[in-house]
Amino acid sequence: MVNMLFGKNYGELQPPPINSERRKELQLFEKQAGIKFRSQELLNLAFSHRSYANENQNEVGNNEKLEFLGDSVLGLVVAEYLFETLTDKAEGDLAKIKSFVVSEDSLAAISRSLRIDNFILIGKGEEYSGGRSKKALLADALEAVIGAFFLDSGFRPSKKFVLKYLVPEINKVLENKHRKDYKTLLQELVQKQFKTYPKYSMVKKTGPDHSKTFWMEVKVGEVTYGPGKGRNKKSAEQSAAQAAYEALTAKTKPHKAG
User: Fold this and answer.
1) What is the 3-state secondary structure (H, E, C) of the chain?
2) Is residue 229 part of a domain?
3) Of 68, 70, 139, 143, which has the fewest Cβ atoms less than 10 A away?
4) Residue 188 appears among annotated catalytic residues
5) pTM
């Protein structure tokens, strides 16, 4: 399968070149992750961010197709594990658990534990804007590694790799020690109690383009909660949703926006 990918016609899957120093770096990652690639070119491609490919006039490929594949492998492995081990759970419960463990937050945390931020290849502009610390970029890179390992070594080894790092995340959810998706929790609560939906709005954004802070409020009925802040709209919404959810579940009386 690898030969088919890296034959005479590379197309968009042209891997970045590997010198002796880079090869040592890739070997270090393999050692840290507890996996071994037959093709280090494929692993190197998994670390190639679109910004890096763009700065190289797209003479090298990016990891987006591997990310697409890895997302599917990840989802299948986690779904199968949940189906086989949590036989007492309903489909809706399994879906919620799966959504937590394959979330951007969860995958980014695993990615950091594997030091993927040290190995990704990103463009100078992305580097300047703090790309190595962005959760979305880290989560995507992990999925690309999973996709690359699946192509390189097949389903069984990639399944073993996924479960090694995802089972602890599943256990966190079962023990209620995971990071909560407060937007989902708030929406479910508001629908149940008030038969309506929370409405989010941006209060302001501050800072330079490469390092902005967003401030979001959430309105439930006539009551406004927040603002919550974050490095992007999504995280700011989560922060506002957490404030609203905790206030509503604690039955405290929040202040109206004036």
Assistant:
1) CHHHHCCCCCHHHCCCCCCHHHHHHHHHHHHHHCCCCCCHHHHHHHCECHHHHHHCCCCCCCCHHHHHHHHHHHHHHHHHHHHHHCCCCCHHHHHHHHHHHCCHHHHHHHHHHCCHHHCCECCHHHHHCCHHHCHHHHHHHHHHHHHHHHHHHCHHHHHHHHHHHHHHHHHHHHCCCCCCCHHHHHHHHHHHHHCCCCEEEEEEEECCHHHCEEEEEEEECCEEEEEEEECCHHHHHHHHHHHHHHHHHCCCCCCCCC
2) yes
3) 68
4) no
5) 0.71
